[in-house]
Every structure is written in C-alpha cells, then in structure tokens.
Amino acid sequence: MLPLALLGACATGFSDPSRELAPEVSATTAHADEIHVPADLGIWNTPLKDDPDQPQAAACETCHGPDAPRSGPPRDDFHDAIELEHGTLNCNQCHDADRTRLRLADATTLPFTEVMSLCRQCHGPQTRDYQHWSHGGNTGYWDDRQGAALRNNCVDCHDPHAPAFPLVRPVFPPRDRGYEETEAHP
Ligand code: HEC
Ligand code: HEC
Ligand code: HEC
Ligand code: HEC
User: How many angstroms separate the Cα of 41 from the Cα of each of 44, 72, 95?
Assistant: First the structure.
C-alpha cells in the first residue's frame, strides 16, 4: 500500500515549489557557444596605485590614439614593467604601429577583442584542441538547448607577455600518523 501512496504524492507535485521539475526544454532552440572577452583588454593597468589594491588604468588611446598629446622624443623604456617571456617575440609582432590594435604577420590589424585570432596564428595545435573542447574549458551550459556555453578566452588563462602556465608546486603527501608511530616505537 505504501508505494502506491508515495506515487500518489508525486503526481500532485512537491510541497516545496523549488523542487519542482524544470519546464521541458524545446528541442529546437540551440544556443551558439560564446567566447568570453575580458573587459580590460586594451587597458593598461599602470604600476601606479590609487589605493593599495586598485592600479591606475588608462586606455591605449589615451597616449597612443590619434589625438594623444605627444611631447619629447620617443622612448623605448616606457612599459618597462612588462617582462616579455614568449619565445623570441618582440612587441611589434603582436602590437601594430597603431598601438590601439593588434597585428598579424601579414600586417592585418585586429581590435583587442579578436585576440584569439592572434594566438591562433602561431598555435595551431592548441587552437585545434580548443575547437575540439580538449583545451581551454568553459562555464555556462553543457546542454545547448538550455543556454550558451561560455568558453574561456586564451588570455583568461595565459598572459600574452609570459604565457607559460605556472607549474604546480608539489607538496608533501598526507601525513600517515600510523607510520610515524611505528617509526617512533620500532
Ligand atoms: C600613459 C600613457 C600610455 C598608455 C596609457 C599606454 N602607453 Fe604604450 N607607450 C607609451 C609611451 C610614452 C611609449 C614609448 C614610445 C613613444 O614614446 O612613442 C609607449 C610604447 C609602447 C610600445 C612600444 C614599446 C617598445 O619597447 O618599443 C607598445 C607596444 C605600447 N606602448 C603598447 C601599448 C598598449 C597596447 C597600450 C594599451 C593597452 C598602451 N601602450 C598604453 C605611453 C603609453
Ligand atoms: C604575443 C603577443 C604580444 C607580444 C609579443 C606583446 N604583447 Fe602586449 N599585449 C598583447 C595582448 C594580446 C594584450 C591584451 C591582453 C591583455 O591585456 O590581457 C597586450 C597588452 C599589452 C598592454 C596592456 C596590458 C598590460 O599587460 O600591461 C601593454 C602596455 C602592452 N601589451 C605592451 C607591450 C609591450 C611594450 C611589448 C613588448 C615589450 C608587448 N606588449 C609584447 C600581446 C602581446
Ligand atoms: C608570432 C607568433 C606567436 C604568437 C602571435 C603567439 N605566440 Fe605563443 N609562442 C610563440 C613561440 C615562438 C613560443 C615559444 C615556443 C617554445 O619556446 O617552444 C610560444 C609559446 C607559447 C606558450 C608556451 C609557453 C611555455 O613555455 O610553456 C603559450 C602558452 C603561448 N605561447 C600562448 C600564446 C597565446 C595565448 C597567444 C595569444 C595572445 C600567443 N601565444 C601568441 C609564438 C607565438
Ligand atoms: C582554462 C585555461 C586555459 C585556456 C582558456 C587556454 N589554455 Fe593553453 N594551457 C592551459 C594550461 C593549464 C596549460 C599547461 C598544460 C601543461 O602544462 O601540461 C596550457 C598550455 C598551452 C600551451 C603550451 C603547450 C602545451 O600544449 O602544453 C600553448 C601553446 C597554449 N596553451 C595555447 C593556448 C591557446 C592558443 C589558447 C586559446 C585558443 C589557450 N591556450 C587557452 C590552460 C588554458
């Protein structure tokens, strides 16, 4: 008798509305994947701080745009805080002479938002892995009928100036207290 009573309870719904089953999704709507675009692309976080945590930020246009005030001779020590550790690349292989844009090897220029086309130019295998979902990861929805998958941008994980992923520091294994005790009392 009891199982039947339970079944009856299910049919009339849950008493807690938050536990109701979600409405059925329509099989026809598929959301296209979205790629995350970091909000601070094209912004330079200067080494100067407004308060202990907030760097002073300035858009590239401020100093490199067509209306930027220029005075004095060009200097090559301005962004010295950037330590480039990326093969033997130099600034101009990625930054166009118009510093507000990125640049491919064939002199095509791109806005910062299209940074992944820059990475793709030299990192075919990883880009292919990314396209096959085996590099880069994502958040958002797995089921594209429910919502879009939000894929990470290459520069979410890799600093373009020093892209090597930091090594994970190995730590000691969990302490085996039983083992230590036998050590102390052989
Ligand atoms: C506060 C002013 C300022 C801002 C903001 C700024 N720059 Fe610069 N940048 C300079 C100056 C000054 C130089 C030195 C070259 C010159 O005098 O023309 C320079 C040089 C460079 C160089 C050449 C470096 C070299 O060693 O040849 C690159 C590349 C560059 N900037 C990229 C950028 C990018 C990209 C941004 C935005 C994300 C940016 N800059 C924002 C002032 C600025
Ligand atoms: C492999 C390509 C690449 C090279 C080489 C490179 N950059 Fe960049 N740089 C980028 C990209 C992409 C961004 C925007 C992504 C971001 O800010 O996370 C950027 C951002 C910047 C910024 C603003 C953000 C920051 O990190 O300070 C400055 C300033 C800058 N670059 C200057 C330079 C200078 C100067 C050099 C040479 C010493 C250089 N870059 C070399 C690709 C490159
Ligand atoms: C113009 C060619 C070029 C571009 C553009 C470029 N890279 Fe590279 N990248 C290289 C070279 C060369 C190396 C060094 C390979 C080596 O040392 O074996 C490298 C190395 C790397 C590495 C491995 C670092 C390590 O030591 O493990 C990563 C990660 C990386 N790049 C990510 C990026 C990302 C992300 C972008 C886009 C912002 C990018 N690259 C753009 C040429 C490029
Ligand atoms: C979710 C973070 C993440 C994203 C997004 C990501 N990578 Fe990586 N990438 C890694 C990690 C972690 C490693 C280091 C793997 C290792 O050490 O075994 C790596 C390694 C690399 C390497 C070094 C060679 C290798 O395979 O070990 C290159 C080159 C590279 N990534 C390029 C890219 C490019 C290009 C993109 C964008 C299409 C990208 N990555 C997006 C996390 C990411």
Answer: 8, 27, 13
Ligand closest to the CA atom of residue 91: 2
C-alpha 44 to ligand 4 mean position (Å): 23
- What are the backbone angles phi and psi of residue 106, rounded to the nearest 5°? -90, 15
User: Does any ligand 1 atom lie closer than 6 A to the CB of residue 74?
Assistant: yes
Query: Where does the chain have alpha helices with state H?
Result: 2-11, 60-64, 115-122, 124-131, 154-157, 177-184
* Separation of first and last alpha carbons in the chain: 62
Give the number of residues written for the chain.
186
**How far does residue 41's CA lie from ligand 2's centre (Å)?**
10
Ligand 3 binding site (Cβ under 6 Å of any ligand atom): 86-87, 89, 93-94, 115, 118-119, 121-123, 154-155, 158, 160, 163-164
pLDDT single digits (tens) 4-49: 445 444 556 778 888 888 777 766 778 899 999 999 898 988 878 8
**Cα dihedral value 87, 93, 94, 96, nearest 10:** 160
